[in-house]
Amino acid sequence: MKNTRAILMLLIALVAGVAAVVSASRWLIQQSSSSVKQVVVAANDLNLGQPLNGSQLRLVSWPAGSVPPGAFEDLKVLEGRVVRTSLQRGEPVLDAKLAPVGTKGGLSAVINDGKRAITVRVNDVVGVAGFALPGNYVDVIVNTNDEAKSSQSGSISKIVLEKILVLAVAQQVSRDDTQPKVVNAVTLEVTPEQAEKLDVARSVGTLSLVLRNQMDVADINTGGATKGTLLGKMPEVPVKVVTQTATRTVVRTRTIAAPTHSGNCIGVLAGMQGGVECF
Predict the structure, then answer these.
(1) Which residues of 167-179 are buried (b: 16+ CB within 10 A; e: fewer)?
(2) Structural domains in the chain, sorted by start
(3) How far apart are alpha carbons 21 and 199 in whole angstroms?
(4) Kind of pairing, strands 36-42 and 273-278?
(5) How far apart are CA 169 and CA 181, in angstroms?
(6) How confident is the model over 10-45, as pLDDT tens digits?
């Protein structure tokens, strides 16, 4: 009798223990399911301008309290969308990193609104030895002959565009690679007005790219450099030379070097020698 009672008590304790374990496991499952959400992440590394499909994405559990804004919970809604920036494996796919719905893949998907892409031919010198990479900013210098100047300073170099974004080098658009690449073409993001100016610049002279710090946003308006300013020569000014004979008066115009002076200057002729006096 005593043995039967003991066995009965053991069975009751065992049933109560199993019920407690089942209840606890159910409670834990409910708590865990309510504290996490399914978020779409990149299944592998993705380059900007690349269209998305199901094989490139996967769902992972993410703490509900730290889901980033713009995250997706459904793989189907991302079919065909184009990424505007590179994504690393396991990184959440956010709406801010995607091009608008209906955008086709390629370089056109990463061009900002109101901007255009234009390609210029470069070499290892013009392309800053290959250090001008996608995502960097450059200034554009043109070297040309200014016909309005005298022969001494006819060649001029001038910065015509500042803080221009490099979209691609050759056919490479990835912004994750920091290794320099010597290429023969660089694609820049410009406004329509800048595109017109750049097209004129490359038709009238030679172009050079100047790499700049990405945090430097200051605009610098330079006057350009000429042979005269480079070598420190004095500019030439026209001076009228009057020669009078017994029969006629002859007026000739000569150009002579004039010193830099903030006051007024006049041409002085002493015999056949001309000069400039400033006061």
Answers:
(1) bbbeeebbbeeee
(2) 36-109 (3.90.1210.10), 116-231 (no CATH)
(3) 76
(4) unpaired
(5) 8
(6) 788 888 888 888 887 877 776 565 578 889 999 988
**pLDDT tens digits for range 194-223:** 999 999 998 888 888 999 888 887 888 888
Tens-digit pLDDT profile for residues 96-141: 888 888 777 778 888 888 899 999 988 877 778 888 888 899 999 9
- Residue 149 Cα to chain centre, angstroms: 35
pTM for this entry: 0.61
145/148 Cα distance (integer angstroms)? 9
User: Which amino acid belongs to residue 189?
Assistant: E
Residue located via tokens 């056919």 = 171
Pair 40, 73: CB distance under 8 Å: yes
Asked whether 94 and 71 are in contact (CB, 8 A), the reply is yes
